Amino acid sequence: MKPLRPPQSPRPRVLALALAAALAAGAVMAESGTVLRATELRSEPLASADVIGKLAAQQPVEITARQGAWAGLKTEDGQEGWARILNLRTGAGQGNAGSSDQLAAVFKTGSRGSSVATAVKGLSAEELMSASANHADVALLDEYAASPGEANGFAAEVPLATHQVAYLKEERSSRRRNR
User: Fold this and answer.
1) For 78-100, how does the pLDDT look when each residue is reduced to its tens digit (9 = 90+)?
2) Distance CA 93, CA 151 (A)
3) CA 109 to the chain's CA centroid
4) Which of 59, 76, 143, 156 could form a disulfide with 35 if both were Cys (CB 3.0 to 4.6 A apart)?
């Protein structure tokens, strides 16, 4: 009787090549999407950026990039720009009610049909996991804080006065007791 050998694991080189191919394919493939409501196409992923075009509701687009709450888009006529992710639905669009594409869209974007669930759309798991506090900004905010003494001094300079307000008595209605 021959002794049993544990199964051989694939060679690390093959795994590395497979991983590289999968990553490259994902980077090259753009994601299709549909505009949920009429929105502006901007030159940069900023609300203050120049408006370079208008997108109509239900217009198909190609999502080429994501940056925070913004998606880089390319329209069917070749125009490129940025729009807020909340104005988009990823996937091919409406489809059949029972189609697997629509089911996949639920897991991809949290949307199905004409309703959209919003949370941290546009942030990848890696971006969320690598998020950290900006200590310089926290220190800047701390500089704006007023001490109790400064607040009392300001209140004394302007016509502010302390007033004690009594709590309202809680009235129990018959409706509440019947719940």
Assistant:
1) 999 999 998 999 875 444 444 44
2) 55
3) 9
4) 59
pTM (two decimals): 0.41
Q: Is the dihedral of CA 149, 154, 157, 161 positive or negative?
A: negative
Question: pLDDT tens digits, residue range 99-118?
Answer: 444 444 444 444 445 555 54
One-letter amino acid of 116: V
- Measured CA distances, 90 to 80, 132, 154, 179 (Å): 17, 28, 52, 44
User: Which pair of structure tokens corresponds to residue 173?
Assistant: 């209605």
Question: Residue 74 and residue 41: Cα distance in Å, rounded?
Answer: 10
Structure tokens at 30: 């753009």
3-state DSSP of the chain = CCCCCCCCCCCHHHHHHHHHHHHHHHHHCCEEEEECCCEEEECCCCCCCCEEEEECCCCEEEEEEEECCEEEEEECCCCEEEEEHHHEEECCCCCCCCCHHHHHHHHHHCEECCEECCCCCCCCHHHHHCCCCCHHHHHHHHHHCCCHHHHHHHHHHCCCCCCCCCCCCCCCCHHHHCC
